[in-house]
Amino acid sequence: MRTLFLAGILCGAVFAQATNTSATPGVMSQWDVTALLSALEKGAGQLGPVMDQMKPDQWTAAGAPQTYALQWRSARKEVQYLLGSAQGLNQQPERLTLALDTLFRMQTLDRTLESLVQGTRKYQSPTLAATMQARLDEASANRDKLRQYVVELAAQREHEYQVMDSEAQRCRGTLAASGTAQRRKARKTAALPSAASPSSEQK
Asked: Residue 94 phi/psi, 5° resolution?
């Protein structure tokens, strides 16, 4: 029993060490991640004032489809969602789910705003459309950096899981071997002849 207990402690120590030292090289530094996310927040915050100048409800009088108004409302909400995701990721940059959520929201917002840029250029103001396009161009570099960070972070997590699984299998093997040794020892002990009974008292 003591052997199994010691083997379990050893496996736990090795497992913890493997988890702490399993990071793969090449992942963006904490400072770079913080700078990137701060830039994302700033860029997302600059989109709102430009969108406020768009009047898609008035475009329909010029023949624009009602879809633009729906896209505008959706984009307004998506900007707020993006800000929330970016702020959450800034607080927990190691959360892969948050990084993916932020990236997906950026991509969705970009597609919607690209459509609104076309509508603004055709039905309202080429100058305003150019302003929004400039904001999108500025955000594209940050989006590419975020995509690269997501890839690196996912690779790191996959490497950690592989190390953890390998260590878990090795520890299971160690515990199984220790248990087998204990059972063999118990069988040998049980097979030994019992101690001789004490001699009867002399008459």
From this structure: -85, -5
| DSSP 8-class letter at 62 | G
pLDDT band at residue 29 using 50, 70 and 90 as cut-offs: confident
> Per residue in 51-87, pLDDT tens?
999 999 999 888 999 999 999 999 999 999 998 888 8
CB 79 within 8 A of CB 56: no
Rounded Cα gap, residues 90 and 79, in angstroms? 16
- pTM strictly above 0.90: no
pLDDT of 91 above 80: yes
Instruction: Look at residue 106 in the predicted model and tell me its pLDDT.
Output: 92
List the CATH code of the domain at 27-157. 1.20.120
Give pLDDT, residue 173: 65
Q: What is the pLDDT of residue 139?
A: 87
**Spans of all domains in the chain:** 27-157
d(CA 122, CA 178): 76
How far is the CA of 44 from the CAs of 63, 105, 151, in angstroms?
30, 11, 22
Taking alpha carbons only, the member of 39, 112, 50 closest to residue 75 is: 112
CA dist 147 and 167 (Å) reads 30
Residues with Cβ < 8 Å from 23, sequence gap 6 or more?
156, 159, 160
Distance CA 167, CA 183 (A): 24
